[in-house]
Amino acid sequence: MTGPNPRFPAPENVSAEAKAFLSLPVDTSAADRPSPTSAEEWEAQIAESNGMFEALVRESVEKAPVVVAKSTMAGVTVREVVPENDADLKRDRVLLNFHGGGFTMFGGDLSVLEAVGPASAGYRVVAVDYRMPPHHPFPAAVDDGVAVYRHLLETADARQIAMFGASAGGALAASVILAARDQGLPLPAAAVMHTPWADLAKIGDSYETNDGVDPTLSTYEMLRDAATAYADGEPLDHPLLSPVYGEFSKGFPPSLLSTGTRDLLLSCTVRLHRALRAAGIPADLHVYDAMWHGFQLMAPVEGKDLDREVMEFLDRHLAV
Amino acid sequence: MTGPNPRFPAPENVSAEAKAFLSLPVDTSAADRPSPTSAEEWEAQIAESNGMFEALVRESVEKAPVVVAKSTMAGVTVREVVPENDADLKRDRVLLNFHGGGFTMFGGDLSVLEAVGPASAGYRVVAVDYRMPPHHPFPAAVDDGVAVYRHLLETADARQIAMFGASAGGALAASVILAARDQGLPLPAAAVMHTPWADLAKIGDSYETNDGVDPTLSTYEMLRDAATAYADGEPLDHPLLSPVYGEFSKGFPPSLLSTGTRDLLLSCTVRLHRALRAAGIPADLHVYDAMWHGFQLMAPVEGKDLDREVMEFLDRHLAV
Fold first, then answer.
1. Average pLDDT of span A293-306
2. CA dist B179 to A112, A250, B185, B232, B271, Å?
3. Does the CB of A12 have a partner CB in chain B at under 8 Å?
4. Which CATH architecture has domain B16-317?
5. Measured between CB atoms, which of A203, A273, A289 is closest to B267?
6. Does ipTM top 0.95?
């Protein structure tokens, strides 16, 4: 159902844009949606969800001073997103991006959504259009990520590569780094994980406390079917599915994590931060008051502030 | 009233001790308590609140390998807390501590509560028994803090001094640093602010979202009278009252801030962190899942993890 009002008023200390968004009704209808029972039903549901974002992504690419080029790397579909003006390119640095969307949505042309910003800021971004359910469950996405990273290492220095992603993509960035490390590849220079879906099971306080409070990812019930489809029978505490259980003491790059106090994945994010810190990994946590899942792409003021943190962080950790 | 049950079950990913505490009823009776209308009524309320902690603090001092010595510095009452074994002392380093308690409670012998841990770990801690309402409202506490700091600087190097505090004491540590800086004193080497009461007004999302959820500081109504008494007519957004409004771009030391996702002051903490970061101050934020206001003194597992972060942070920033 859609509640007539958000459970809590917007606090006065957020931007006007955020305040307006936080004053809209919270839609929890996804909780009542029947679970897909076949590949066809999955495809229909994914197409419907993606359909709501297609115009938005197309416009964002058209308006930004970037060029998108589709290709394959090691057999995996990728889209390279680079500044229109070649002179703006931060030479030799590469950002490897894993899109969000609950391991089911935002594939194909939508996969560049989060790549446009960093490319506008001068980075070469390789957005991985990793395989997903219903046809390609875990570990296809991790395998694709590692394959693209291995390919990039043929021409780029790991010290000049960072991985980043949001939501499912934030968790996938962590899993790809863990898997690549265990296969003997060098660590990338840095990892940026916005609101990472670090525990696929309903474990962590904010799955309860922010249920019906987060205006975009309003309930775990929006994630349950995707977790089941993606895991494909593997236990959800497998560290490459839920990286909060990863062994970070064997090595992980300096990390930046972000979330908001109304984020359904607040607990996933702070738990992953603690797991990194427990292993002694340098890890910066940024929590924005009253912000929700995915605010970094939606709230212009708060999102821009986070962009600045990310750019500063990458400048600090990526070799020139 | 006291609710029969906490609003949310304890998540499975916290320590057994934290789980037990989170399963107790949340007491919100302070919201119904009549506001003190005279100095005598304040004194009675403060004595009643303090009374619940006296045995706890006395025992904690007796059990710890520390020595407490009461004295005055620049006319301000302080208690120096040092390791019993002189050989354990981290020579020449000093931690200046401001106790919590909403600018009304935890004065006198209780003021060493937070000093015992760092002194057990080898630090010389100067716990400031700063003046408080009802007889000494703002800016007495700030003045006392600056006076003690100025006194310490006669014999100690600012690069060997850190300030720390929790709740009201976390905010006071920030205010004392801002005031000392504006008076031309050198910045201390570091600041540690646990769950700082950084905005005395009811501004910030968690004053609403964690109302009745935080098991210790269960509602802003426990703070309202204290804010009024302490501010004594000054606007609550005065930066030395509510340091979230401080001008950090003029200088502030590297900082560590901590909170929990159920903390009523979660928003105060993350907002202060953002204010520091907006000014380019190195500031580490640590957020513990499902933890409450003051968990650092109560949850043995999570609190010990935070102690480790603090000790590492101080080692990194304090000159030898």
1. 96
2. 48, 44, 9, 18, 20
3. yes
4. 3-Layer(aba) Sandwich (3.40)
5. A289
6. yes
